[in-house]
Every structure is written in C-alpha cells, then in structure tokens.
Amino acid sequence: MTIHIIRRILPFLVLVLALPALVQAQELIAEKSFGKATNEIVVTFAAAVDRAVVENPANYRVYEEQDPDIQLVLESVVLADDQKTATLIFKEPLNARLSHVVSVSRLAESGAKATFKVMKPYLGYLLSILVGALLINNFVFTKYLGLCVFFGTSKRKDTAKGMGITFTMVIVVSAIMSWFFYQFILKPYGLNFLQIVVFIGLVSLTVQAVDTVLRKVNPALFSAFGVYLVLVIANCVIIAVPLILADNEYNFWESFMLALGAGGGFLLALYLMSSVRERMDLANIPPTFKGVPIAFIVAGQFALAFLGFSGLALF
Amino acid sequence: MATDKTNLQLVINGILNENPIFRLVLSMCPAVGISTTVMNGFMLGIAVLFVQVCSSCTIALFKNVIHPRIRIPTYTLTIATWVTVIDMVLAAYLPEAYAKMGIFIKLIVAFAIITMRLEMFASKESINASFWDGIGMGLGFMFGMMALGLVRELLGMGTILGYDVLGFKPLLFFVLPLAGFFCVGLMMAFFNYIEIVYKRTKRA
Fold first, then answer.
1. What are the domain boundaries of chain B?
2. Is the pTM of this model over 0.90?
3. What ipTM was predicted for this assembly?
C-alpha cells in the first residue's frame, strides 16, 4: 500500500524538486519559439542582457531532446536593438517537429545557466497535418491525384456525398492498417520493396471487408454506398496516402490525421465540383466543350483557387 | 470468344479509337500532374506500356485458373508486382528521371486504364491478342502524354525536348502543374471540334 502511495506522489515530488530550476529559467526567458526561417530559434529574455555574452555562440548548447549527444552547430546569434530578443541562427535547418533543448551559460552575473525547451504544440501540429491534407495540399486540386474517380462521380451531389463518405471510411481504415504493417512487419524485416504490393493488397482487403460487413449489418446503407466501394480501389489517393506516411515515418496519430484529411479533402473537392456541375447542366455550353472538357476547365479554376491556400500556417 | 481484329487493328484501336487519355478519360492523374515536358510523358509512357503489356499477358495466361469472385484482387496484385519491378528498375538505372516522376511511378498500380483492360480484354482473349492490345493501350497512353507534354512545353517554355525552338516563352502559365487541367480540357475540346467539323463536311 505504501509503495502505491509513494508511486503516486513520486511525479509530484520530482516536479517540486525540479521547480526551482524551471522557475529560474522562466524568470530569465520570457518567450521562445522557432523562427520564420527553418534554421532559426527566437528567444526573448525577460530583461535586457549583456550583448557580449548573448552574441557569443560558444555560450550555447543546443540539441534535439531525443539525442543529447549530438550538438547542433550554431552559426551566429543576433541580439535585437531592444537587447531582449535574440535570434539563434543554425548552420543547418532544424526539424521543427522535434523538441529542442537550449541551454545558455553565463547569462547573469552569477554565471547562472538557463535551460529551456523549444517545441511546437503537438496537438497544433496534428491539426496542421489535417488542415494541410484538407486544404493546402488537397489531393485532388494541388496534387492531381484521384482524378478518374473525381470526374466520374461528381455529376450529382448525392453521388458525390456517397462516394466521398465511403472513400473517407475506407482510407482511414486502410491507412491505419498500412501503418501497422509498415511499422511492425515491413520495416523490421527489411521488406520495404514490397510496399506497393502490401499496401494495395490491404486496400483490396479493406474494401472487401467493408463490403461484406456492410451487406450483413446494414443493408440500407449498403444499397446507398455499395456501388462506390468498387471505385475506391481505382483511386490513386488510396495508395498515395500509405506511401506518403511510410516515406515520412509518421506515427499513429499523424497517419490517422493524414488519412482523415485526405478523405475529407476528397469529399470537399467532390462536393464543390458536383455543385458546379449540377448548375452547368442548365447552362448553355458550346457543343465542343460539353461534358468532360468543361469539367476539366472548372477543375482548373478550382485548382487556381486552392493555390491561394499555399503558405497558410495556422499553428 | 476470340477477337476478329488483326494485331495491327488492335494497336491502332488503342492509339486512336480508344485512346486512354482523350477517349476513355482514364488515368487522368499523370496527364494533369506531370505532363509538363515531352520527356516526362515519354518516360511514364514507357513505364505504363511495360506494366500494361506484362499484366495483360500474365492475366491472359492464367485466366482459366482465376476464380471469378476474386478476379479484381488478383488483377490488382498482378499489376502491383509488375509496378514493383519497373519501380526498382527505374530507381536503379535512371535515378534522375525517377526522381522527377516521384510518386507517380508507384501510383501506376491504381491507374484505372490497366485494370479496365484486364477486365474487358485480357480476361477473355488469347495471349497474342492481349499482348497487342496491351501494346496499343500503352502506346495510346504514351502518345497522349507526349502530345500534352508537347503543347505544354512549347507554350510554357518555348522548347521541345529541351531544345529551344521558339526563342521566347509564350505562356509561362502552362508550365504550372495546375495548367494541366486547362490543357487537357482545351485539347479535348479541340478534338471534339475536329470531329464535329469532320462529320459536317462528310454530310455535306
């Protein structure tokens, strides 16, 4: 029982013990974040600091939290005129996905050392993957994938919704399965060259499984969405997402967000396109452009509009 | 059920009457995404030609032992195998071109045109006919991609195959990846126009 209690209070104990160090760092450092350029960290000190100390790169020690042995090389440090904001410029771009530990020595007269972590909020990072796949890198309008199915099923709003929802379901399930296979089977056993075969096999399996389950469990839903299941497999996006998440070594939640964003982005693109195409039926279009050609031109205009999302950074 | 077309007719059918890009409107992703130069179109065309011919022959060879209910997964896995082969060959021998085409080589596995040809043609016909049909479809795809690449390269960069032809750049817009949509749409409209004019003169 006592062990249990000790185990419970241990984290708090550690926190209390570590608090002075944290508070000290907090007193010296007001704010810290990654800079605008990829090789910058911006630190704002609480009070004006000595220029000679702060601008000397030898006083810094910076490393990624997961490998403390590898020190990152600082090129220079620039202190702004207010004597508070320092910009640390590194030789090589930083990986903003990881948290970085920075320690500054000889900052105060007493030779105090300030150590702090610089990281992006993780939830914000996950959301940025979602928004990225949904809008900024929309698979249809900026990566030009899944176009066959896109043009085939965007004639009516009902069809568009059905296809979009079915596709989102299948891609989330199959991306998660692909992630498991990639992380626990393909990578450990050095079978990376089998990526394409395994991923497409998993997709067929998912489609077949969803088909069978839906037919038994909810026949009404099946009659609404069943026809789209066959088309899912002819969509490049469904195989592009597992390949991308394997290339970027995404973890589970990142993969989930990417798949959700890809599916949602496809749904969004289909719905937008079908709304336009329903109205085009009533318009007087030259006979040479009727049907597919005008659909391509409209898609091109959507792609131009989506270009406006590039550079959007929310988090 | 054997086709009554000769080999030559099968090839021409793939290039003209049933051109994968402009007639069947299949495999549009590469046609929009990477048809910026003639060379890109040619390289991807070669890859698709290889995959189409090999998978067509494989399926035509094994059509009698494939159970109808699992035929689609079988086609997909066959294509995936051949795509893996061409993927590794290109990565090993032509790394520069491979880097340019990026993910699209791997995505050949999801190109609708190949699965469709297996379902419509190779699963019913002899190996010989399937081979020539595959050649026709592959060449049709390649010529479609190269035609798109020609227009975009000429209008965007003023060059053909990297050689300066015009000496100036008429419409830089066409090099942008998204101009692929406009380019495909306009070319389809152009072909439709030719067809309409042709029919009109024939009637008159």
1. 7-203
2. no
3. 0.85
